[in-house]
Design brief:
The protein is mainly beta and 330 residues long. The chain has three domains: 77 residues, no CATH class; 124 residues, Thrombin, subunit H; 87 residues, Thrombin, subunit H (Beta Barrel). 10% of the residues lie in helices and 40% in strands. The chain contains three helices and 21 strands. The strands form three sheets. Strands 8-7-11-12-13-10-9-21 form an eight-stranded antiparallel beta sheet. A six-stranded antiparallel beta barrel has the order 15-16-17-20-19-18. The protein has a two-stranded parallel sheet with strand order 6-14. A hairpin with a 3-residue loop joins strand 15 and strand 16. The longest helix has 20 residues. The two termini are 31 Å apart.
């Protein structure tokens, strides 16, 4: 896919922020809006577009006039992409739906453990260790943390600070106290307020950290190497190739297809949360990959994987994760 330079992204962002995003999100079947490249006849045109993501495409003849996405808005082209309903990506409880690597190594117990391995709060199934991080304000690191998602380490807000974190995660055989690798330290609460309109949810990240010991944690990400800094969100271009190592699908690559995306994500239990300022990529994850750190070709951190569908994967911008959790990588 052709890269969209910053100036093209900014042009669409201005149109998006003029109330057009809010208007599109009120339309039937719409679950997200982002900035990407217009696709025509299955091929990228190279033209910037305001992308609308829908659970399913419907013939125009079956839609009410108010639910139709116009072909252009304020001089910017639009596009409609079917993605289904995005969901978080921990391991499913139903064993028959699990898919793991043939050798199953990333679901095993590992000490010291690297990014990419199975991990989880004692009361969930399992997700992925993204990386080992430090406190942002420490010039000389003295405390070491496992980085992953809120729904992996903090059980979607239900956990308490100090709760044991297991490696491997419970569904992969992890048990307390023998397999405890860390204790929950900080998490960014996710807004699920049931009586609050979805459009007022202002989530930026699904992220948490858990403190572990230097002897049991390795800063390397399996197959991906050491993290070499992070990418500011204003410098991320549509078309960037990214990579990750996750508990279920291992090492995989994808392409950034949308930035500055607002997207609704299903957390189960009749809970849907709206996330703003997200990155969407081509599909490269499955259940159990939640928490994977996503980097670019230069091993700069780009995003934290937390959700997806059979068509796309969704990442929190690493800049937001870094700021809200007050962490750093190097």
């Amino acid at each position: 896919m052709p890269h969209l330079p910053k100036e093209e992204i900014e042009k669409v962002r201005q149109v998006k922020s003029k109330g057009n995003e809010a208007a599109f999100l009120r339309k039937k079947h719409v679950v997200g809006v982002g900035i990407g490249v217009k696709i025509k006849d299955g091929k990228p045109t190279g033209k910037p577009a305001l992308i609308t993501y829908v659970t399913s495409k419907k013939p125009l003849s079956t839609l009410e006039a108010d639910d139709v996405i116009p072909e252009t808005v304020d001089g910017v082209e639009t596009d409609v992409i079917e993605i289904g309903m995005p969901t978080i990506q921990p391991v499913l409880k139903e064993k028959e739906f699990l898919r793991t690597l043939p050798s199953n190594e990333l679901t095993s117990r590992m000490r010291p453990v690297k990014g990419g391995w199975s991990v989880g709060h004692y009361d969930i199934t399992a997700g992925t260790i993204g990386a080992v991080v430090f406190n942002k304000d420490e010039h000389v690191p003295t405390t070491y943390y496992v980085l992953s998602n809120n729904h992996v380490l903090a059980n979607s807000n239900a956990a308490s600070i100090g709760d044991p974190i297991l490696q491997p995660g419970p569904v992969d055989g992890g048990e307390a106290p023998d397999d405890q690798i860390a204790k929950l330290s900080r998490f960014v609460p996710i807004d699920f307020t049931p009586d609050k309109p979805l459009e007022e949810h202002n989530n930026l990240v699904d992220a948490a950290i858990a403190e572990g010991s230097l002897q049991e944690l390795d800063r390397e990400v399996y197959w991906n190497g050491y993290v070499k800094g992070w990418k500011r969100k204003d410098d991320l271009e549509v078309g960037t190739i990214v990579k990750k190592t996750g508990r279920t699908t291992g090492y995989t690559t994808a392409e950034v297809t949308s930035v500055d995306a607002t997207i609704d994500v299903n957390f189960g239990g009749n809970r849907v949360a709206r996330f703003h300022d997200q990155i969407l990529t081509t599909h490269f994850s499955e259940g159990g990959d939640s928490g994977s750190l996503v980097t670019n070709a230069d091993n700069e951190a780009v995003g934290l994987l937390f959700a997806g569908s059979p068509e796309i994967t969704i990442l929190n911008h690493i800049e937001n994760v870094r700021d809200l959790l007050r962490i750093d990588f190097v």
